[in-house]
Amino acid sequence: MNPDWQNFLTTQGAQTQDGVVQHFGDSAAERIATRDGTVLSDLSQFGIIKASGEEAKGFLHNLFSSDVNALTPQQALPSSFNTAKGRTLATFLIWRNETEYFLHLPQSLLAPIQKKLSMFVLRAKVKIENASDDIVCLGLSGANAATLLQQHFPVLPRSPLDIVYHEDTGLIRLGADRFQLNATPQRAPALWKQLSAGARPVGSPCWDWLNIRAGIPVILPQTQEAFVPQMANLDLIGAVNFKKGCYPGQEIVARMQYLGKNKRRMYLAHVESDAAPQAGDELFSMEMEGQSCGTVVNAQAAPGGGYDLLAVIQIASHDAFPVHLGNLQGARLQFQPLPYPLP
């Protein structure tokens, strides 16, 4: 987190840990406000990798699962970076300006992914660097989010993943009532004060809960290389383009799409558990006879108690058997509908 920005958030009541805002004094009330009201969140649980240089577009296009060649400054794009075996190393949102590309991914993956991308550069005219301190990202969500933004910006992005720029701030529409704002560190404090007048500040876990409810998986160190993109529904949220050329893992991803049968999918669930589920936790059902039938991708405390989570699970187990956290005697998952249809 940019040091000046962190100092500012502290003056606003933010309680931080390892550079991530945990809450503003009342986590439980903030969770309820995230569900029922309009909230403002710092997004420093994510960092930014910047790619620049005259060959940056082709370089990234040849590495990622989405069509980077088709990306324009007026849109953002979900994407993934995979191994040669088709296993996902990172998921992220990517956007660009006229000359540079920006990858928004978890801080816990930033350094290893930056290092791995740099290994591919070789003689390419591309520069890969950490730009996390140069851009402050904010999240705004709720029924009044658009109305609040219209008080300060003359034009808003109309469709999901559209981007509109206003001087030193970029607005990305993530959904009907959810926006990401990318601002300079100099602009961010004034912007925060303007928006917090009409939106409750909440900790980063609240934003992570919104991602879970939206069915957006965030790969973390505990789940790197655990899934092929289709298992985590990346094909359903626009993070995989099946018409583009080769990239690491493309053959595996295409084979699963056209020739194979995907036996796992990602599901949304609620669980009442004494201990908080963690990314990478195993799930069990009788169908698998003692073997794990799935893996938690992301989990956060839910506003009404218990925990909401995304989990990649054997389709057969989901369809016909109770699924439990940790072991067959563990808390049972209560499945809920995702905001998009499963095939």
From TrEMBL:
Which GO terms of type biological process are on file?
A: iron-sulfur cluster assembly
Q: What is any Pfam family matched here?
A: GCV_T
Domain (GCVT N-terminal) spans 26-153
Q: Which PANTHER family match?
A: TRANSFERASE CAF17, MITOCHONDRIAL-RELATED (PTHR22602:SF0)
**Record NCBIfam families:** ygfZ_signature
The protein's name in its UniProt record: tRNA-modifying protein YgfZ
Species this chain originates from: mine drainage metagenome
